[in-house]
Amino acid sequence: MNELLLIAGIFIAVLIFFRQFVRGAQCKSKTKLHGKTVIVTGSNTGIGKATAVELAMRGARVILACRNQVRGEAAVAVVKRESGSKNVVLMHLDLASLKSVRSFAQTFLKSEERLDILINNAGVFAQGTTEDGLGLMFGVNHIGHFLLTNLLLERMKESAPSRIVTVSSNLHNLGNLDLDCLRTHKEFGMGDSLIDIFKIYSHSKLCNVLFTHELAKKLQGTNVTCYSLHPGLYLTNAILV
Ligand SMILES: NC(=O)c1ccc[n+]([C@@H]2O[C@H](COP(=O)([O-])OP(=O)(O)OC[C@H]3O[C@@H](n4cnc5c(N)ncnc54)[C@H](OP(=O)(O)O)[C@@H]3O)[C@@H](O)[C@H]2O)c1
Ligand SMILES: *[C@@H]1O[C@H](CO)[C@@H](O)[C@H](O)[C@H]1NC(C)=O
Asked: What is the pTM of this model?
């Protein structure tokens, strides 16, 4: 009898773990998005591409913001085919370059009238530095998106109600921010071992959450709302992180 209880207990624990951390929540909304414009960063593969397909299927105009032209064009073709929508556009964005972020924003603001949803999805789990000498994970996962969001904010206010979604990770729970280090080392969080990379990634994902909280506060009353999330675990390129 006790063994049966134990087995049942373990089964329930595994189920809860799976639902909580692996499967994540599921979106049951049937909302259509005709007339809405959406940007998804890092949408040539993985979660970003799947998101782009879903939003295009719902009628949104979807801008794939990608760093690589060839991979980006291939993704546009796939998103168009899978969604059955022709309203899918590629724009170049390399979040590891603040110059590129600025030029993306300029191009976007010139050519697009509105921005209803910004999805800050791109993410890296790798060591290195950005063009501006920032740590790669800090620079791409947080700072690049921070600048991008700020440059697009006025247009989002004009398009309100609009929303900013930043894809974080459950690993933000393991992150912390050393503000002294942040002041003195642009490369915030360096180190080569896998455990260092894991930690720095977690810090960058905590930045995503804190940024969302602070921005949400600042935007109260504007009808621009902010969200961060853990997408669930998927075997994409950024395996299980
Ligand atoms: N997969 C998971 O289980 C999991 C769990 C928790 C959180 N997340 C988060 O979910 C998000 C998407 O992850 P994923 O699993 O879909 O990863 P992925 O398959 O590796 O895709 C990452 C995307 O980000 C792009 N990217 C990387 N560096 C960039 C840069 N400098 N400028 C612009 N785009 C850049 C990549 O472009 P390239 O193809 O050119 O490299 C790719 O399109 C990330 O923020 C990740 O942290 C994922
Ligand atoms: C926010 O949305 C509500 C409901 O649609 C509207 O009444 C209000 O005027 C909006 N506020 C701003 C600042 O746009």
From this structure: 0.91
